[in-house]
Specification:
Blueprint (H helix, E strand, L loop, with lengths): L2 H14 L4 H4 L9 H13 L17 H8 L5 H7 L11 E3 L2 H8 L2 E4 L2 E7 L7 E8 L15 E5 L2 E2 L5 H5 L3 E9 L4 E11 L1 E4 L3 E9 L2 E8 L7 H13 L4 E5 L6 E2 H11 L7 E6 L2 H10 L5 E3 L3 E2 L2 E2 L7 E6 L6 H9 L4 E6 L7 E3 L2 E2 L16 E3 L1 E7 L14 E2 L16 H11 L15 E4 L10 E2 L7 H5 L1
Parallel strand pairs: 11-12, 12-18, 13-26, 18-19, 19-24
Antiparallel strand pairs: 1-22, 2-9, 3-4, 3-25, 4-5, 5-6, 5-7, 7-8, 10-11, 14-15, 14-23, 16-17, 20-23, 21-22
């Protein structure tokens, strides 16, 4: 987040923070309501749909005592959090955790992970039973040492059939055995094979593949990028430096399994793709009514995310492209969609694959502290929230893609046409190459059974299916003194 944004937000918070109950009563929340008090005040201040939740209204409670009485009705913090959200059909992505250390790691690509990135789909003819298919294997993981690969299927865990009600508990265990399966042309059937897996603390480099493909007069860069993790931004910049040094003429950006991440990283990636728009608007933020009104009046520039030419003091390796080909699936979400939507007013974006998730809103991590930032966090617990706090639109003001971004060329992945990632015969990449070179011979059409998508490894807990700003502003109490 830019320094100007931080400063103006601090000034704003000085005006609005704790404006309802704390101004009217000096009674503090009792210790046993610390977490609940934090949840209400954080959502009252930041939640995008604050105005649509009557119990979050600024004048809902005249005193802290009244607020305490309300909070006592929710002894389980998660129940309060859910009760203060709008309908789940509107807010699909806010969540709360009881250990912010796990959350912080996950947002940077570090999780307890066995290395199998998978998708889940419904079994043919069923609305409850599901099966998994391997999308890719993370390097240096337990799975990387086992006999399991892209395209393999599994239908059960520890001998128990996967269903929509048990998949989280079965796949959430630290150790388990996958019961492998095959597709017989009609349904998914067990093949008797098993793979035992163990989760370890694993940091996934989101740059899975970075290569140059020569086709006729074209030097085509291919980058498969699986997560917007800001701590890998320098490696991402180096990957673009490599492509630039090889003199690529075109770029295929593969976001098919990218569930999103940092808004800052998305802005930097867009700047690496282009380079000719430094200082111009890439995206604009829209907060809840009271926050947005203040910024529109006092500091409208703070609501903008502009193209940049640096990461800190390091120059960005920009390709200055005027056209890009982006591969997507239903797993492409949030920051991935931001890159597509944010680039469209500036360059020609050709989207190939399936419709995206449809996440046009962003979040921030809120802690139980005076400023909701990391400084002076309550030492008695590790609860943190990741509520939706803003909507993001492009420089033309468009951001209404709740149902996903539609591809220019629809080409769904199927089990029989997954192909080898990075191989020129892999259907989605082959299609992009065919469009770049104008050679229809490389255009592959989907064949085989198209199973109904359910979830994927990154979206199961929601932690990595995000678009977030880096942090809430800190130092509010100092600013007020």
């Amino acid at each position: 987040m830019k320094k100007t944004f931080k400063l103006t937000l601090l000034l704003f918070l000085a005006i609005f923070t704790f404006q309802s109950c704390q101004d009217n009563d000096d009674v503090a929340a009792p210790v046993d309501l610390d977490i609940q008090d934090f949840i209400w005040k954080g959502l009252n201040q930041y939640y995008l749909w604050q105005a649509d939740v009557p119990n979050l209204a600024d004048d809902r409670f005249a005193t802290q005592t009244e607020l305490n009485a309300f909070l006592k009705g929710y002894p389980v913090p998660e129940d309060l959090f859910d009760a203060l959200r709008v309908n789940s059909s509107i807010d699909r992505f806010s969540w709360i955790v009881d250990d912010y250390l796990e959350l912080e790691g996950a947002l940077q690509g570090t999780t307890k992970n066995d290395g199998v990135d998978f998708g889940l789909s419904y079994k043919p003819g069923s609305t409850t039973e599901i099966f998994g298919y391997v999308r890719y294997i993370i390097s240096d993981s337990d799975a990387a040492t086992k006999d399991i690969k892209r395209g393999d299927l599994f239908t059960a865990v520890n001998g128990t059939q996967l269903t929509i009600s048990n998949y989280q508990s079965l796949l959430g265990a630290e150790n388990y055995t996958l019961n492998m399966a095959d597709y017989n042309g009609t349904t998914i059937v067990s093949n008797g094979k098993t793979v035992a897996l163990t989760k370890t603390v694993l940091s996934e480099n989101p740059i899975l593949i970075n290569k140059m493909i020569e086709s006729g007069s074209h030097k085509i860069g291919y980058l498969m990028y699986n997560g917007f993790y800001a701590n890998y931004d320098n490696q991402l910049n180096e990957a673009f430096g490599s492509l630039k040094a090889q003199g690529i003429t075109d770029l295929v950006l593969d976001l098919r399994y990218n569930g999103g991440g940092s808004v800052l990283t998305a802005t930097r990636l867009a700047s690496m793709i282009t380079g000719q728009f430094t200082g111009e608007v890439f995206a604009k933020q829209q907060w809840n009514a009271k926050i947005n009104a203040y910024f529109e009046s006092e500091s409208p520039e703070s609501l903008k995310n502009n193209f940049t030419d640096k990461i800190g003091t390091t120059p960005i390796n920009s390709l200055n492209l005027t056209k890009i080909y982006i591969l997507t699936t239903k797993s492409s979400a949030s920051a991935s969609e931001l890159v597509i939507n944010g680039l469209k007013p500036h360059i020609n974006v050709v989207q190939i694959g399936d419709v995206t998730t449809g996440k046009n809103v962003g979040s921030v991590t809120l802690y139980d502290s005076p400023t909701f930032g990391t400084e002076n966090r309550n030492p008695k617990h590790r609860y943190a929230m990741q509520p939706i706090v803003l909507k993001i639109v492009n420089s033309d003001g468009f951001g209404d893609y709740y149902n996903g971004l539609q591809p220019d060329y629809e080409l769904k992945e199927t089990l029989s046409t997954l192909g080898v990632l990075g191989n020129t015969s892999e259907p989605l990449l082959s299609t992009a190459i065919g469009k770049i070179t104008g050679t229809g011979k490389m255009l592959k059409q989907s064949t085989g059974k198209d199973f109904d998508y359910f979830k994927d490894a990154k979206s199961i807990k929601g932690i990595q299916n995000q678009m977030y700003i880096e942090k809430a502003p800190e130092g509010l109490l100092k600013a007020l003194k």
